[in-house]
Amino acid sequence: MDLIKRYDLSGPRYTSYPTAVQFDPALSPESLITQGQASADKSAPLSLYVHIPFCAHVCYYCACNKVITRNRDRAQPYLETVYREMKQLSQWYSDDRIVDQLHWGGGTPTFISDQQMHELMSALRSQFNLRDDDKGDYSIEIDPREASPETLEVLRKTGFNRISLGVQDLDPKVQSAVNRVQPLEQTQAVLDKSRQLGFSSINMDLIYGLPHQTEQSFDATLDVVIGMNPDRLSVFNYAHLPDRFRSQKHINSDELPSPETKLAILQNTIDKLLDAGYVYIGMDHFAKPDDSLALAQAAGQLHRNFQGYTTHAECDLVAMGVSAISQIGRVYYQNEHDLAAYTQAVTQQQHAIKRGVCLTDDDLIRGAVINQLICHFELNPAAIEKRFNLNFDQYFAAELAELAQFEDDGLIQRQGRHISVTPSGRLLIRRICMAFDAYIPKQQPTRGYSRII
Questions:
Q1: Which top class of enzyme applies to this chain (predicted)?
Q2: Per the structure, how many domains does the chain have?
Q3: What is the dihedral of CA 418, 429, 283, 277, to 10 degrees?
Q4: Which of 194, 307, 324, 378 is buried most deeply by CB count within 10 Å?
Q5: Which three-class secondary structure state does DSSP give residue 105?
Q6: What are the CB-based long-range contacts (under 8 Å, 24+) for 288-296?
Q7: How far apart are CA 404 and CA 379, in angstroms?
Q8: Handedness of CA 250, 254, 256, 259 (dihedral sign)
């Protein structure tokens, strides 16, 4: 109980360092583009992301940038804007670099028609060097309520080989409370068809911390999901931020599980999935032992970016669409968040960049430390010293002193200089990473982030 009180803070999820809170709207887009081009490794492969913001239904828990509409005609004008942005991005960054990773997110990417999916993929192939050998990681987020067998066939034929199914919870009471009523049979049908079509990896998304969830109810959901045998599982911590996300105002905070219950659900989830043969990749991800994420982690090559855990550390991430975030060389930048502003920016300026950050040497060093911790649950100072030519103990003297509390609380262990995160510490890995975050004021509450527990 004391540990929960001490560590139930708000903090970043560290899909980047610096995090998006540090992105500066005062930086000129031209300087971000120039530095991105100058610092990019043009011999390395690329990762592409396309954001499709439309959803036909609102899920109350959702914190994604979305547009709720039943009007499918809104998709085509948006796609035309994306094509304009895509052409410019290709001129800046393509350099015939092979695209090893592609992801469509949202919103609901399958909101667009099958024909529009064909056209979008064709446009990407015309502007970037997409693979045609099925060896890349080409993935798409799917709402099983919006994916017919014909749509799945189209996705497979156009080059997708990985899918991620939004499930969240199978309990009818929880589904009703978050306005996401999704019968198990619907999800199972999409899963079966995807396997029949030869998708090489199927991920399922779950969320813990939703209204009416208990240890027992989520345990029952896990039993069914384990029986469905997905290749990967993402089990996200619900972040209740109704002041930031209007749809969350529909959720009654009195019906949410307590921090103690959430932590118990997470611990039970980890234990149960480990018993079922999954590898705990980190924070919110699990994978089969032969999955590329598990293999990358075992080899010390796992990475984390705006799409979560990834095996593609060497890739620059070129993102397009409203609110999309790119990572090019030593630059992060984000597009306009509002759909009208995004459309106007692309039309008038040939880009949609709203804010960004140029990484300093200190950012790169701290980012590497945080990546080691959040991807591998250990920290090898010698590796950081060798990579950046510094004295780790001197550079991080204050941070190492702060780790003493974590050691006393059983969150980390030290063997010589080597630091390893304990099973208890894995549940609070975001707080451990925060010790190395130069942008978070020490001993002060953090704002703009979700709660760790």
A1: oxidoreductase
A2: 2
A3: 50
A4: 324
A5: strand
A6: 288/231, 288/232, 291/201, 291/231, 291/232, 292/137, 292/201, 293/232
A7: 15
A8: positive
In the annotated binding site, the residues are: 49, 55, 59, 61-63, 106-108, 141, 168, 180, 205, 239, 325
Q: Are 294 and 418 in the same domain? A: no
Residues 13 and 118 in one domain: no
CATH number at residue 417: 1.10.10.920
Q: Do 246 and 389 belong to one domain? A: no
Pairing of strands 46-52, 316-320: parallel
303-305 and 331-335 beta bridge pairing: unpaired
Tokens in use for 280?
Answer: 């705990």
Q: Among 6-20, 143-157, 222-236, where is mean pLDDT lowest? A: 6-20
107 near 51, Cβ under 8 Å? yes
pLDDT in tens, 156-173: 999 999 999 999 999 999
DSSP 251-312: S-GGGSPPHHHHHHHHHHHHHHHHHTT-EEEETTEEE-TTSHHHHHHHTT--EEETTEEES-
CB 376 within 8 A of CB 304: no
Residue 356: strand, helix, or coil: strand
| DSSP H or E segment with residue 348 | helix 339-349
What confidence tens digit (pLDDT) does each residue in 211-251 have?
999 999 999 999 999 999 999 999 998 988 888 888 999 99
Residues making up the annotated binding site for S-adenosyl-L-methionine are: 49, 61-63, 106-108, 141, 168, 180, 205, 239, 325
Total residues belonging to the chain: 453
- The pLDDT, as a whole number, for residue 438 is 94
**Range of the structural domain that residue 410 is part of:** 1-18+361-453
Residue ranges for the known binding site for [4Fe-4S] cluster are: 55, 59, 62
Structural tokens at position 182: 């999704």
**Long-range pairs of 366-371 with CB within 8 A, sequence gap ≥ 24:** 366/17, 366/436, 366/437, 366/438, 367/16, 367/17, 367/18, 369/396, 369/436, 370/14, 370/17, 370/433, 370/436, 370/437, 371/17, 371/303, 371/304
